Task: inverse folding
């Protein structure tokens, strides 16, 4: 079945409420500020630029629904810190139960694979592969280039894979 619907249904069973609302409420409690502003700020810190809108659009295309907030929160945790420890600690504080194991088991049943690998694959799809740094480097270099020879050197110097 579709991943997004399965995840929402699973979250409803585990938490007894809609996953999206729970994620937003949890984020508000953890960060003590509006989720949107916190997300933009963390995206700037992670990516070093205003990449939040691109992330939102990518997540919408991948999931085929407005599942973006949860996806971005997961991606931020994976990329910005040690995902496992943060996830375990956050879920204990937010829900007062061992939510992580239930989520992992549920994801395994739904997807037929380990949740961690699926999350890594999702973030690769969101990022459009490990090309972001190469693009940033390319953009930095072309600003100071004059003439076609200089431009050719920039193209050759950037690692695209």
Result:
């Amino acid at each position: 079945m579709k991943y997004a619907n399965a995840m929402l249904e699973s979250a409803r069973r585990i938490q007894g409420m809609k996953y999206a609302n729970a994620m937003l409420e949890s984020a508000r409690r953890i960060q003590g500020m509006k989720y949107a502003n916190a997300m933009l700020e963390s995206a700037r810190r992670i990516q070093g630029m205003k990449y939040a809108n691109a992330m939102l659009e990518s997540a919408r295309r991948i999931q085929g629904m407005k599942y973006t907030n949860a996806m971005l929160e997961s991606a931020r945790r994976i990329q910005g810190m040690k995902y496992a420890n943060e996830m375990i600690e956050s879920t204990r504080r937010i829900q007062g139960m061992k939510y992580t194991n239930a989520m992992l088991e549920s994801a395994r049943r739904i997807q037929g694979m380990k949740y961690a690998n699926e999350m890594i694959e999702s973030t690769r799809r969101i990022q459009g592969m490990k090309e972001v740094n190469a693009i940033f480097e390319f953009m930095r270099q072309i600003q100071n280039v004059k003439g076609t020879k200089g431009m050719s050197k920039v193209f050759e110097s950037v690692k695209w894979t």
Observations:
- The mean pLDDT is 57.
- The chain has two domains: 3-128, 129-161.
- Residues 129-161 form one domain.
- The longest helix spans residues 3-15.
